[in-house]
Amino acid sequence: MLNLFEIMQNAQGGNAYQNLAKQFGIGSDQAQKAVEALLPAFSMGLQQQTQTMEGWQNMLASLGQARNSAQFFDSDGAGIPDHLENEGQNALGAMFGNPETTEAVARQAAQFAGLPVQMMQQMLPVIASMVMGGLFRGAVNGGLGGVLGSGLGSIFGQPAPTPQQQAGNMLETFFGSFFGGRAPQPQPDPQDPVAAGLDMLKGMFQTGQEVHTAQMDALSQIFQQVTRR
């Protein structure tokens, strides 16, 4: 099971940092520092979003639409396709919930990485798309391909639902009792492949490297402000 740091190390055949550097006209070490500045925010956002049914629903819906991001993750990095701007923004929405948080994360990460805020804002959706592509690959390898694709309908003997319905139906079955406001549902069976796949996916949300205390404090303040809204 990979964590976020390992996902980025493996992205684009291990050449993600060099490709980002070339795309944005910076050194490979600067590109790596930009990624390392963002990964703790991605980790915190992913873990916070999946504390609720709605957050899980949004996350799985975004992953279900991340096939292009997965192809970008696997590519040789020859430029950034235009369509990935939208996918990257969708990924940021699933991680952070709103544009204000995304903007605050970009400012904080730019300060940590020593890069202009405008450049970090441009890099943010690209890196988010790579991460989402890696999470998509991990989810499929972990047995969640049917949940993310059109196969969920056949599992329940129903027409193929939309990505939002897919996530909602699955979560109602496996996690309804955890969030309240619904009729009690059976506890997820730890031997069930979907439940095991979700546990694996959540494990991939870890940063995967030590994070400076000052950086974590700054990110905590950003996400606490979101929680208080």
What this model shows, in words?
- 75% of the residues lie in helices and 0% in strands.
- The chain is mostly helical.
- Helix 4 (53-64) runs antiparallel to helix 6 (84-96), helix 5 crosses helix 8 and helix 6 (84-96) crosses helix 8 (117-148).
- The longest helix has 32 residues, at 117-148.
- It starts with a helix and ends with a helix.
Topology:
Elements: H1 4-14, H2 16-24, H3 28-49, H4 53-64, H5 67-74, H6 84-96, H7 99-113, H8 117-148, H9 152-156, H10 163-179, H11 193-203, H12 213-228
Helix pairs in contact: 1-8, 2-3, 3-6, 3-7, 3-8, 3-12, 4-6, 4-8, 4-10, 5-8, 6-8, 7-8, 7-12, 8-11
Keywords:
mainly alpha; 12 helices; 0% strand; 229 residues
Distance between the termini: 34 Å
Overall strand count = 0
Q: Report the structural category.
A: mainly alpha
What composes the largest sheet?
none
Beta-strand proportion: under 5%
Would you tell me the overall average pLDDT? 78
Give a summary of the structure in a few sentences.
The protein has 229 residues and is mainly α.
